[in-house]
Amino acid sequence: MKITASAPGKVILFGEHSVVYGKPAIAVAVNRHVHITIQEGSDTLIHVHSPELEVSGYLELEDETVNCENKLKSGILNYILKSLKKIQDGTGSTFKKGLEITLELEIPIGAGLGSSAAVTVATLAAAFKYFNQEVDRKKLAQLAHEVELEVQGAASPIDTALSTYGGAIYLSPETGEIINLSLDWNIPLVIGHTLRESNTAQLIKTVRNKKERYPSILNPLFESMEQITLEAREALTRKDENRLGELMNINHGLLDALGVNTPVLSKMIYLARESGAKGSKITGAGGGGSIIAYCPGKEEEVLKQLKMEENAFPIQISQNGCQVKKI
Ligand code: PMV
User: Fold this and answer.
1) Which of 222, 232, 288, 324 is nearest to 5 (CA)?
2) What is the pLDDT of residue 294?
3) Which pLDDT score is estimated for 92?
4) What is the pLDDT, as a whole number, of residue 154?
């Protein structure tokens, strides 16, 4: 028996950092996925292998340890470990025969593109299927968010919701509710990403520290970010390309003011605009990681220029959330 599950990554269009202070955010699932394959093992161990990450190791659920030589890249295995543990504890079933798990990634890790949430959602879905248990999407998203909290200490529910449901979402600050945005038009985006990983927890701390030192300056910035997100929601609904691009540029300026920009990200952002993007900004926590460029009719040019500088690829919004099947 072999189970495969896939889940999409995500990009935040508007609202990173301000969302931490109760402001709204807009994010979309992207057509780049994480794929996980689970099959019964040949011994009692839970082996995990990822060709892209050049990671090979095994997990011990009893004492919750990850055994892997490639320490630099093995962090993502913690999400698999905690997900399997959660299923085992929650269902009362045990992986008696051990497992062979293969993890394939179409998105870079540590790039603010939701790889850890996608891995978590796909692992949970595959493990439920392995034990022939049904799980609805609401529960899947909730469990995945719990796993992210356990591994990271802090996480917004945006990434796990998008990896579960796909599509586009608006995170409402008042209720914490996740509202589906039905976008019936093509929003061509190009991602530029650096090899320097983004350390979300550290960047949240840096911003918080700045907010404490300059409350009268930073609080209005978060208010402005909120207005940007509200206006962007309208621009998305009205298909107003120019306004959407402009709002991205303004948002980027404010993220820069928070101190989460880097020279490399900045270079890519301006390069994208010079190559015809209507808007470009940091996506995610910053400090490394990725930018997004919104470039209707100019995808090829923007892609070419960004690739000459760093790594880049085009993305589309994906309506598909997590998919799982038994082979
Ligand atoms: O880089 P990411 O995808 O982890 O995004 C972080 C976005 C923050 O607003 C900084 C934190 C959060 O949990 O929303």
Assistant:
1) 324
2) 98
3) 87
4) 76
In this structure, the dihedral spanned by the alpha carbons of residues 39, 42, 46 and 52, taken in order and rounded to 10 degrees, is: -70
Contacts for 78 with CB less than 8 Å, ≥ 6 apart: 66, 151
Return the active site residues. 159
- What residues of the chain score a pLDDT lower than 70? none
Q: What is the pLDDT of residue 242?
A: 97
Which atom from ligand 1 is nearest to the alpha carbon of 198? 1
CA 217 to centroid of ligand 1, rounded, Å? 21
What structural domains does the chain harbor?
2-182+318-326 (3.30.230.10), 189-315 (3.30.70.890)
The amino acid occupying position 101 is I
Residue 155: per-residue pLDDT: 80
For residues 38 and 83, give the distance between their C-alpha atoms in angstroms, rounded to a whole number. Answer: 13
Taking CB atoms and a 6 Å cutoff, what residues make up the pocket around ligand 1? 12, 16-17, 19-20, 112, 114, 155-156, 198, 200, 204, 284-285, 289
Please tell me the predicted confidence (pLDDT) of residue 167: 96
Q: How far is CA 120 from CA 20, 173, 310, in A?
A: 22, 25, 28
Phi, psi (degrees; rounded to nearest 5) at 156: -85, 160
0.90 cut: is pTM over it? yes
**One-character DSSP codes across 270-288:** HHHHHTT-SEEEEESS-SS
Q: What is the pLDDT of residue 176?
A: 78
Question: 284 alpha carbon to ligand 1 midpoint, in Å?
Answer: 5
**Which of 26, 171, 200 is the best mutation target for the ligand 1 pocket, counting ligand atoms within 8 Å of the beta carbon and taking the most?**
200
The 10s digit of each residue's pLDDT in 237-248 is 999 999 999 999
Q: If you measure from the C-alpha of residue 14 to the centroid of ligand 1, how many angstroms do you get, rounded to a whole number?
A: 11
Which of these, 202, 201, 123, lies nearest to 160 by C-alpha position?
123
- In this prediction, residue 124 carries a pLDDT of 98
